[in-house]
Design goal:
The structure holds two protein chains of two kinds. Chain A contains six helices and three strands; from the N terminus they run ααβββαααα. By secondary structure, chain A is α+β, with helices and mostly antiparallel strands. Chain A has a domain of 124 residues: Phox-like domain (PX Domain). The two termini of chain A are 47 Å apart. Chain B is mostly helical. Among the domains of chain B are: 183 residues, Vacuolar protein sorting-associated protein 35, helical subcomplex Vps35-C (Serine Threonine Protein Phosphatase 5, Tetratricopeptide repeat, Alpha Horseshoe); 67 residues; 90 residues, Methane Monooxygenase Hydroxylase, Chain G, domain 1 (Up-down Bundle). Chain B contains 37 helices and no strands. In chain B, helix 3 packs parallel to helix 5 and helix 17 packs antiparallel against helix 18. Chain B is elongated. The chains are: A alpha+beta, B mainly alpha. Chains A and B meet through helix 2 and strand 1 of A and helix 2, helix 4, helix 6, helix 8 and helix 11 of B. Chain A: One of its GO terms (biological process) is late endosome to Golgi transport. Chain A: It is a peripheral membrane protein. Chain A: One of its GO terms (cellular component) is retromer complex. Chain A: Pfam families: PX (PF00787).
Chain lengths: 195, 780
């Protein structure tokens, strides 16, 4: 219950306001009350919140859906990509709604860029499916529906975690990944300038 | 640490998990509560507080749905009562715990901390009035620490519930720092605005695809927000002045600025329900002003209608003083509704009509003598609907139907010819097909026998085959219209005007053509019958009443004839019979001829019926029995015996060839009844004074008998009764004829008799043995 033992008022937790000393059972006289000095822990009068702030939608809305997997190409050159659909009201994103298609290797590229340039610990991607690509293995391998669905979930979790991080939001590579139709791997890495 | 964006907030719980999660939480609560109470029994307060804190910790969850959270909350707050009672007991016995208010704030997590603080704070208030004001202020402010919508709403609800009976309710502070009603108002208003903020914010929590579920969850929690308003209404010291200057403006400020449709809709309704009607009357303009500023998605009309109905009820309640005369209630609402119509170009016609209907209800209920109010409403509705003239036909029809239904529900009367015209103009899409205009109707009406043409006439009745569904819809619409006709009432005194109203109604409704008039004109006719009776009752005050009655029946006669021409013989027949009954009751000049005329029309229709087997089938579908007895009854009521006799005889046909549904299309051939009718007719004939007439009647009767006897040939019906009676009649006729003085009339009678006998002879000689046998009794 007690995060610290109460032995003396010197170790009083900082959130406690000295105003509350008034509520001791022993009633202080008016004189004593008036003599109390304003202290570091005195309650601050909050500024009245404007209606705008109170009722407008919070500016932390960020939703990324990884959906609509599609397999392109034939035989050996087949690959699967996913739609990355973004909706946001964060000021840092140029487009409030965007939709691009990305494949697994694009995610790998993003992860590598972020690991190198940003200070964050980048989460892991879902598995590479190496075992599934062995010859003579039954089933559709990496084009198997179940596998694609598992991968999709993993990618969705990954991108939401990453895109929500303010330090990742500063990186150009993230914005290119999320909101530009094609990734220019020859781009100049760097930080996004905040206007 | 990652910045948490909304989509990561785990607020989408799966239903199956909910039960499990809730059960787990509840069992923790029960365990901790038990421990807490055990410690309290042993007066170990610190330990008890630790258990209480553990228990309250279950309310920190993000995994429960509002429903489950509520259940958990109820159990925990129940248990918290024990703690409160213990502390109250201790304090009252003088065993005050040192610095308890400060002590509980050492709890590590904010949820247990604040719940405990509220509990302790209330104990402090209940035990000493000092610093009540400060504690209340402190508590309502400290709750700001929880910004999570669900948890915050329930926390603030706990605050409201705990402080229910300790809010100061006096104009002046009774003791220093004990607070006055102003402080209570501030307290509750702050709590309300914070709760509204959290409630509105709920919709933004979580993925967009869950939006509908979140809205549903918000609805489940609306009561939490509304309780603030209830609390305000329970403060007795708030008078209309304070409500108007302090309370309502603050509430409306939140409502209008939150811009959230769900909140606005609920809170506005709540205000209407929770505060007294006198307050609403005093603040009408402010309230209506706010209504005009609401989010377009809010169904403002519902709010307005609620308010109008409530104020109408208030004004018309027994013992109420009514609306104060300095409040032009009708004008206020009229204006506001006009503003709303202006500001919302997409206001649906149904909404428009229901608004106007409520206003009409107000006008009629509260301002009975202001007929101009009702006029005004009809006028505005008309122009409102005209503006929406680009409506397509089905919508127009449904709007019109809605208007009519509303009128029926409210019993709205239409008291003058002009208003009838206005109303029928308003719903003209129901009255007639487009193209049928007044000129055609006028022509039709003067012709009296034609009501817009035959069913086959495409121009008046609309082209195209009638489908099953169309017919059903038409029937519904038109019966609605028919019922509304009964609302065309000028009131008990203005009988002449009433006749005018009925004439106007017929004129306009006739343009509907055959398909429609079968529904819409009968009410007009019945209203006319009623009117005649009323004229009769008024005979002392109006010496022209006889003439008027006659005119009314002429009107009815032509109407019903017109109906008959529209291939509606059953309907016309019934109307004629009913008319005859009515006429009989009213002794105006020559009312007997009128009655006879009505009945003979009825019978001629009937005869046409039986001669055309095709028509019989539709007649069979009617309920035969009442029609039969009605007709017989009507027949016997005719004033003159000869008429009675003839009529009753004709009724015999009903019992013979009528095909009631029970017999599934077969003819009744109720020989017994037939015999009875004819016997009765015979008796009536015998009461005639004029011998010649008697003979005539008897001859006619014999013809009837012959008819039935011949009809029975080949069946096993026993017509011996009939035959013998016929034979007796023949004898009687001979007797009378022999004593008759020769005259033009008697010539005629003789001839008829001879012809009859001749006919019978020829039949019996036709070779058919059975017929011969039957007729043998006639002693030809």
């Amino acid at each position: 219950f007690f995060s610290c033992r109460i032995s003396s008022f010197r170790s009083r937790p900082s959130f406690l306001s000295s105003d509350l000393l008034k509520f001791k059972p022993s009633v202080m006289s008016n004189q004593q009350q008036q003599q109390q000095q304003p202290s570091a822990t005195q309650r601050l009068q909050p500024k009245k919140q404007t209606m705008e702030d109170a009722y407008s939608p919070p500016a932390n809305f960020l939703e990324i859906d990884v959906c609509n997997p599609e397999t392109h190409g034939l035989n050996k050159d087949r690959y699967t990509d996913y739609e990355i659909r973004l909706r946001t009201n964060l000021p840092v994103f140029k487009l409030k709604e965007s939709s691009v298609r990305r494949r697994y290797s694009d995610f790998e590229w993003l992860r590598a860029e972020l690991e190198r340039d940003s200070k964050i610990v980048v989460p892991k991607l879902p598995g590479k499916a190496l075992k599934l690509q062995l010859p003579f293995r039954g089933g559709d391998g990496r084009f198997d529906d179940e596998f694609i669905e598992e991968r999709r979930k993993g990618l969705e979790e990954f991108i939401n975690k990453v895109a929500g991080h303010p330090l990742a939001q500063n990186e150009k590579c993230l914005h290119m990944f999320l909101q530009e139709q094609t990734i220019d791997k020859a781009y100049v890495p760097g930080k996004v300038r905040t206007t | 640490l990652f910045w948490q964006t909304r989509s990561q907030d785990m607020s989408g719980p799966v239903t199956e998990d909910q039960e499990k999660l809730l059960d787990e939480a509840l069992s923790v609560v029960k365990l901790q509560a038990f421990q807490m109470k055990r410690c309290l029994d042993k007066a170990k307060l610190m330990d008890a507080l630790k258990h209480a804190s553990n228990m309250l910790g279950e309310l920190r969850t993000s995994l429960l749905s509002p429903k489950s959270y509520y259940e958990l909350y109820m159990l925990i707050t129940d248990e918290m009562r024990h703690l409160e009672l213990y502390l109250l007991d201790e304090f009252q016995k003088g065993r005050r715990v040192q610095d308890l208010y400060e002590l509980v704030q050492y709890a590590g997590n904010i949820i247990p901390r604040l719940y405990l603080l509220i509990t302790v704070g209330v104990v402090y208030i209940k035990c000493s009035e000092i610093s009540r004001k400060d504690i209340l202020k402190d508590l309502v402010e400290m709750c700001r620490g929880v910004q999570h919508p669900l948890r915050g709403l329930f926390l603030r609800n706990y605050l409201l519930q705990c402080t229910k009976n300790v809010l100061p309710d006096c104009v002046e502070e009774e003791q220093e720092d004990s607070g006055s009603v102003s402080d209570s108002i501030d307290f509750v208003l702050l709590n309300f605005s914070e709760m509204n903020k959290l409630w509105v914010r709920m919709q933004h929590q979580g993925h967009t695809r869950e939006r509908d579920r979140r809205e549903q969850e918000r609805r489940e929690l609306k009561l939490l927000v509304g309780t603030n308003l209830v609390r305000l209404s329970q403060l007795d010291t708030i008078d209309v002045q304070r409500y108007r200057s302090v309370v309502l403006p603050a509430v409306l400020e939140q409502v209008v600025n939150c811009k959230d449709a769900l909140s606005q809709d609920y809170v506005m309704e709540c205000i209407i329900q929770v505060f007294p009607d006198e307050y609403h009357l005093a603040t009408l303009q402010d309230f209506l002003q706010a209504c005009a500023e609401l989010n377009p998605a809010v169904p403002v009309k519902n709010i307005l209608i609620s308010l109008i109905n409530r104020l109408s009820a208030f004004a018309t309640r027994d013992g109420s003083n009514g609306i104060p005369s300095d409040i032009p209630l009708f004008d206020f609402f009229s204006e506001q509704i006009a503003k709303i119509i202006e500001n919302k170009p997409d206001l649906s016609p149904e909404d428009l009509v229901s608004l106007q209907a409520a206003l009409t209800g107000l006008a009629l209920g509260v301002y009975k003598d202001r007929e101009d109010y009702v006029d005004k409403v009809l006028e505005t509705t008309n122009s409102g609907l005209d503006k929406l003239g680009r409506l397509d036909s089905p919508t127009k029809k449904s709007v019109s139907a809605y208007l009519l239904q509303n009128m029926l529900n409210n019993g709205t009367l239409v008291p003058s010819s002009e208003q009838v015209e206005q109303l029928l103009d308003l719903v003209r899409c129901l009255v007639a097909d487009p193209g049928a205009d007044a000129a055609a109707a006028a022509a039709a009406a003067t012709a009296t026998n034609s009501l817009g043409g035959d069913p086959g006439d495409g121009s008046a009745n609309g082209a195209g085959p009638d489908s099953e569904a169309d017919n059903e819809d038409l029937a519904e619409e038109q019966s609605l219209l028919g019922r509304v006709v009964h609302l065309f009432s000028t009131g008990p005194d203005l009988l002449d005007e009433q006749f005018g109203v009925l004439k106007t109604a017929r004129r306009i409704l006739a343009t509907g053509g055959g398909r429609r008039v079968k529904y819409t004109l009968p009410p007009v006719v019945y209203q006319a019958y009623q009117l005649a009776i009323r004229f009769h009752n008024r005979q002392d005050s109006d010496d022209k009443w006889r003439k008027k009655c006659r005119k009314i029946f002429e009107f009815c006669h032509s109407t019903v004839c017109g109906l008959a021409k529209c291939e509606l013989p059953n309907l016309a027949l019934r109307l004629f019979v009913d008319g005859a009954l009515v006429v009989d009751k009213i002794p105006f000049d020559q009312h007997d001829t009128v009655a006879y005329e009505f009945l003979s029309q009825a019978f001629s229709l009937y005869e046409e019926e039986i001669s055309d087997s095709k028509r019989m089938t539709c007649f069979a579908a009617e309920n035969h029995e009442p029609l039969r007895s009605q007709t017989v009854h009507a027949a016997s009521k005719l004033l003159r015996k000869p008429d009675q006799s003839r009529a009753v005889a004709a009724c015999a046909h009903l019992f013979w060839s009528g095909r009631p549904r029970e017999l599934q299309g077969a003819e009744m051939r109720d020989l017994k009844k037939v015999g009875e009718c004819l016997k009765r007719a015979g008796r009536l004939a015998s009461q005639c004074m004029d011998a010649g007439l008697q003979a005539q009647l008897y001859t006619e009767l014999v013809n009837y008998y012959l008819y039935f006897v011949l009809q029975s040939a080949g069946s096993n019906l026993d017509v011996s009764q009939l035959s013998s009676t016929a034979g007796q009649l023949l004898a009687k006729i001979r007797e009378i004829l022999s004593g008759l003085e020769p005259s033009a009339d008697s010539e005629h009678i003789h001839k008829h008799f001879e012809a009859t006998v001749e006919f019978a002879r020829s039949q019996s000689a036709s070779g058919d043995a059975t017929i011969a046998g039957l007729l043998a009794q006639l002693e030809l």
